[in-house]
Each structure stands twice: as C-alpha cells, then as structure tokens.
Design brief:
Layout (H helix, E strand, L loop, with lengths): L3 E9 L5 E10 L2 E6 L8 E4 L4 E4 L1 E6 L36 H8 L2 E6 L7 E9 L5 H4 E11 L2 H9 L7 H33 L16 H10 L5 E5 L2 H14 L3 E5 L7 H5 L5 E3 L17 H9 L3 E3 L11 H10 L13 H6 L17 E4 L10 E6 L2 E5 L8
Parallel strand pairs: 1-4, 1-5, 6-7, 9-10, 10-11, 11-12, 12-13
Antiparallel strand pairs: 1-2, 2-3, 5-14, 7-8, 8-9, 14-15, 15-16
Helix pairs in contact: 4-5, 4-6
C-alpha cells in the first residue's frame, strides 16, 4: 500500500499533545510516524496547510446499522420475545449499507459501539465496528465488546405491553440477579465436569469412565464471561435510583460496570468517582421524552469531568444522528466542559471502554490510520469535516453542504 505523508497540519493527537505544522505518515493502514519532523522519503505528500488533523471520532453507544431508519421492516434493534436475552449478538443484525454509516463518516465518526436497545433487563452482546465496509464481519474491531443491561422505564414498559415480567423496577433487578446466580451455578457445573475429565485422563485408558458434559447454554456462557470480568456490563440507567441499582448489582456479583445515559449521574458524583465507574453520557441533544430524563442537562459532562470521572459522550443514534457527535461536545463546552478535556470524550475514553484503545482513539505509531481533516477549529460549530480516513483509506470527502436528493 502507498506510503502517504500528510503535512503542515495542526495535529491533535488525542494524547493531549498539539503539534503545529505537524505531519502524519501512514502505510498499510497503520500510522508509522507522527510529529513535527517526519521522514517523507518515499511518501506521497499531501499538503494539509490550514487544516486540523484529529483521530477519528468514536461513538461508544449507537444503534447504527440495526435500527432500521425509515422503515420498521428493517428494525432489528431489540429481541423482545423474552426478557433475558444475553445470547443475541448485535453483529447478527448489522446492515452495512444503512445510511447511518454514511452519516458517521460525514461526521468524522470512524468507530462505533453498536448495541441493541433497552427493552430487556439483560439484552445481548454489543460489537465494535468501523463505519466503512460492505461485510459486517470485516468492519468488526472487537466482538463481543460487552453485554447490555437496562433499568428503568424501558424494560418495565416492554414487560407491561407483552403481559410478562418485568413490570416493576424490583422485577427488573430480580430477573438480572436471578440470571447471574444461574450463571454462577452454570460455571460451577462446568468446572466440576472439567475436574472429572482431568481425573479420568490421569487413569489408564481401560479404567476410564465415560462422562457426559453439562448442556451448553449460550446465554449463560456469555454471563460467565461477565462474571469473570472478561466483558463489561453496559448498563442503561437514567434516574439516580436506577444508577444505584446498577452499582448494587455490580458489587454483588463483582462484574465491571459502565453506566450508559446516566442522566442523573451528576447528582451522585462521589459514589461514581470513588468506584472509578466510567460514564457514557447522552444523548445531550433532543427533548425530555420520558419522566426519567426530566433532569437531563448537557452541563453534566463538564460537571462529571471536573469531578474526576471518566466521561464519554455518545449519540444513541438514531435518536441523535451519529454525525452530530462532535456537535454535542461543542454544546457541552458551552455548558462548562473544559476545552482541553473535550476531545477525550469522543476519542480515547470511548476507545478505552470499548476495549479497542490498542487500535484507535489516538494518533500514535502502530495504531490504525483512522483520522479526519477539518477546515478549522474543531470546537467551532462552523467547522466541517473535510475528509475522513479509515485504515488509511479515504472514506469521505466533503464537496459542500450535504443535501439529500
């Protein structure tokens, strides 16, 4: 693949470093140099004078490719046949030609944490994917990347509409707790079986007793990974009491917790910061469509960051279109988010909670060449994404305002 040097740009590396008149060199889809004095020999040179070069943005919580924008026939975002569905995988619902991926590239979003909705107390497995490609498997960065849980109004409403549990907050918590207890027992059964297998293997072959393994359960298998802290729980919770229930359950079973939406997290900052729980806030735009988001405020981003929380800003696309991820950060800056902490909320922090920080989130040697060029200060609302690159390949180029046919 061609070696390309992008020169004379103002580079925000995502590590806190700003390089004036800097350069970035890519080869074979990876970053091979970044700095103020790069070796351009053997490179195709692209002069980026007057432009800002940033890591591709990361939306850590979106439904891009599975929500069926424009048609309910294409909706694959919630499996509502049962209340507990940890066995379903968002990957199996992704439609790579969903227009949301076009929107993402136009907005400079190169990586997306794609997850199903919040119909169930324990839903399925989210995936992390690049925003370009024609085959979902080829877009994947990490699969699975966590398990979705949901507390509050949504699972209650679905239970009531389908005339099944849960219909109360205590019912939601019970079903989640019951599922983790079952996963603990499932793990014990398999550990006992494996111990028997090892004991039999130590015997002479003529003395071995045939053994029957426990029956596999795909849902419990994934919950065992959660219990072993191989995968985090992404917990949808808006209200303060629902956030506390999420914390209570995570401490009861010892799994890694990441709070999603977390509308009232700023009201219990100390409880969150003292436990080092990451908070994926949003969407910041849009109305207060439910009672549990009555205290929604974009000021929460700055409040949480200043208090020492690891904060991620997300769109919940399509509820806020994915291309407006940066616009939400601009609003958060207006409402008190320190500018020097803004970029991390849509680059390095989401990369970290998605488990892909070794590949994306910052502009460093060895990482994927996912970056964007902008025609001005990224926190000026008038600034446009001019070009978006994924794995070193140009996947979007602006030629003026976007006006659908």
């Amino acid at each position: 693949m061609t070696r390309t040097a992008y020169t004379n740009a103002t580079i925000w590396t995502g590590t806190g470093e700003v390089i004036d008149r800097g350069g970035l060199v890519t080869q074979d889809g990876r970053i091979v140099q970044v700095g103020s004095n790069i070796d351009m020999s053997g490179s195709e040179i692209v002069d980026c004078a007057g432009q800002y070069l940033l890591p591709g943005f990361i939306d850590a919580h979106a439904h891009t490719g599975i929500w069926g924008e424009g048609s309910h026939d294409d909706f694959d975002g919630n499996e509502m046949s049962e209340a507990i569905t940890p066995y379903v995988r968002a990957l199996d619902s992704i439609y790579p030609e969903d227009p949301g991926f076009d929107d993402a590239r136009r907005g400079g979003v190169t990586t997306i944490g794609i997850m199903h909705g919040s119909a169930n107390p324990i839903g399925g497995q989210l995936t992390v994917a690049k925003s370009a490609g024609l085959v979902a498997d080829d877009m994947v960065l990490r699969e699975p990347a966590g398990v979705k849980m949901a507390f509050g109004e949504n699972p209650k409403r679905v239970g009531e509409s389908r005339k099944r549990a849960p219909t109360t907050r205590m019912g939601v918590a019970h079903l989640a707790r019951k599922s983790f207890v079952e996963a603990q027992e499932y793990q014990k059964d398999w550990e006992h079986y494996e111990a028997l297998v090892a004991a039999e293997a130590a015997k002479p072959e003529s003395e071995r007793t045939p053994l029957r393994s426990p029956k596999r359960d795909l849902g419990l298998e994934i919950l065992v990974k959660v219990l072993n802290r191989e995968l985090p729980i992404r917990n949808h919770a808006h209200r303060m009491d629902d956030i506390r229930t999420a914390i209570r359950l995570s401490e009861e079973f010892g799994y890694e917790l990441i709070l999603d939406h977390a509308t009232e997290a700023h009201r219990i900052i100390d409880e969150i910061v003292s436990r080092n729980i990451p908070v994926c806030l949003g969407p910041l735009m849009g109305g207060r469509s439910k009672r549990e988001v009555a205290r929604k405020t974009p000021a929460s981003v700055g409040i949480m960051v200043k208090a020492g929380a690891k904060v991620i800003v997300m769109t919940d696309s399509p509820f806020v279109p994915v291309e407006h991820l940066r616009d939400q950060v601009i609003i958060a800056i207006r409402e008190g988010l320190p500018e020097d902490r803004a970029l991390e909320t849509i680059t390095s922090n989401p990369a970290d909670i998605l488990g892909v920080a070794d590949r994306v989130g910052t502009l460093e040697v060895g990482k994927d060449a996912d970056f964007i060029l902008m025609n001005g200060d990224p926190w000026d609302a008038r600034t446009r994404v001019q070009q978006t690159f994924i794995n070193g390949q140009l996947v979007f180029s602006a030629d003026g305002p976007y006006i659908p046919d």
